[in-house]
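Morning run. Coffee first, then this:
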Amino acid sequence: MTDVAEADAVVEKEMHQAASRRQRIQAIDRFFSPVVVPNGSRQKSSIDTVRERARLLAMAIEDHVPEGDQKEHAVMHCAEAMFWANQAISHR
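And here it is:
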């Protein structure tokens, strides 16, 4: 009976981790989603490029960094870097 209980616990843990990972990926996609920038704006291309590269870095961190506070901070710093870069682009 212990083997079955252990197997059930492992499956439950894996299901929880998969759900949590899906939620984190959805959050990254939402957070790094495009914002409205006028199409004629010279800055649109630069802003879109910075946003997409920051999203890709956040996804790489999600995929390759072990769970923990440092991982969460790393993703948030990607968002912060995107914000400041886009601020600089929009104010030039």
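The two ends are 67 Å apart (CA to CA). Good start to the day.
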